[in-house]
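User: I'm new to structure prediction. If I give you an amino acid sequence, what do you actually give back? Let's try with this one:
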Amino acid sequence: MSLAGARLQAKSAEYQKLQGDLATLVDKRTRLDAQLSENEMVKKEFANLTPNNTIYKLVGPVLVPQDQGDVKNNVETRLEFIRGEMKRVDGQIKETERNSEKKKLELVEIQTELQQTRSGAPSS
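Assistant: Good question. You get back a string of structure tokens that encode the predicted 3D arrangement of the chain. For your 124 residues, that looks like this:
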């Protein structure tokens, strides 16, 4: 295998890995989006509660009463965490997309170089 062929194979493997990483990150972002929606819905429902309402948490097979203030704070904390994670994952997606695009351009350059070598044209 020629040097350019080996480079092409290596860059192709790097590009495929980046594409796999990107798919994983997009999947993670989708799950975070679903969690955000679910927790926002819970927060919205909690806004309709009166102080007389009791919130229960399922612990194993038992419903345990919870303090409204604690539960509302927990949901708010969870929302902040999810938003932070979404921001972090969005940054990772952008970075991976940039790296993937760079690898793609490198692949095109190497392929062009190989085609020129095979056709006997001088490479510049």
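You can read the tokens as a compact description of the fold. Here is one thing that stands out. Residues 3-111 form a domain with the Helix Hairpins fold (CATH 1.10.287.370).
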